[in-house]
Amino acid sequence: MKSQPNLAKQYFNKVPRQWDSLYSHENFIKYAINKLLRKGLFNRYRLTFEHCGNLAGACVLDIGCGTGRYSIECAKRGAGKVVGIDFAPFMIEFCRNIAQQMDVAEKCEFICDNFVTHKFDGHFDVVLALGLFDYIKDPEPVFEKIAQLKPCKFIASFPGYTPIWSLQRKIRYEWIKKCPIYYYTQEQLERFYRNASFSRFELLKGKRGFFGVADAT
């Protein structure tokens, strides 16, 4: 039997183009449809860059970068260096190609590895973890590793359990695509932040989850 992280990796290796279409501006019709039907996803995108603030010259780490759309947007907004890390090789290959197309490849580095065990050089001003914790069975080591990096800002999203939406995701992801999904309560998240020594954090409650902003400096 395959482990749950390997099942998630197997799934994400299959879907880079499909996943990227959720964010891509290049196909106007698909983008307009996704913006209409997936308001939560676009609200998360908006909140992320509102809370990032001025990225001029910043060093950004994007954990679980997927197809690199957040990483690339950070580079386009003036970040000096962006590092994206993901465990799915085909996602990383896709990131590199898109960064080249968007003329930001010189600012972006994409790494295929496990975030928790990877050794990073230097300091990160901003750490992003958007859509990452949906697929993390044990989030505490991730929180601890992020705290060790001491970013000025740590911005993350977390899915919360709602009966209808969660059942739909269970059928679509766990039953059909064999990709495990995890959910969090506010109490759990507050404990994760505190256990990782984040003294200052804020959790914004949405319809289907939470948006967290913290710092570890």
Radius of gyration, in angstroms, nearest whole number:
16 Å
CATH superfamily: Vaccinia Virus protein VP39
Overall number of structural domains: 1
> If classified by CATH, what would the architecture be?
3-Layer(aba) Sandwich
Major sheet summary line: 7 strands, mixed
What does this protein structure show overall?
By secondary structure, this protein is of the alpha/beta class. It has a single domain (4-116, 123-215), classed as 3-Layer(aba) Sandwich (Rossmann fold), CATH 3.40.50. It is 44% helix and 18% strand. It is built from 9 helices and 7 strands; from the N terminus they run H-H-H-H-E-H-E-H-E-E-H-E-H-H-E-E. A 7-stranded mixed sheet has the order 3-2-1-4-5-7-6, sandwiched between helices. Strand 1 (59-63), helix 5 and strand 2 (81-86) form a beta-alpha-beta unit. 34% of the residues are buried. The model has no long low-confidence stretch (mean pLDDT 86).
Please give a handful of descriptors for the protein shown.
217 residues; alpha/beta; Rossmann fold; 44% helix
In short:
With 217 residues, this protein is an alpha/beta fold. It has one domain (4-116, 123-215): Vaccinia Virus protein VP39 (Rossmann fold, 3-Layer(aba) Sandwich), CATH 3.40.50.150. Helix content is 44%, strand content 18%.
Helix/strand layout:
Blueprint: H1 4-14, H2 16-20, H3 28-37, H4 39-52, E1 59-63, H5 69-76, E2 81-86, H6 89-101, E3 108-112, E4 126-129, H7 140-149, E5 153-159, H8 163-176, H9 186-195, E6 200-205, E7 209-215
Parallel strand pairs: 1-2, 1-4, 2-3, 4-5
Antiparallel strand pairs: 5-7, 6-7
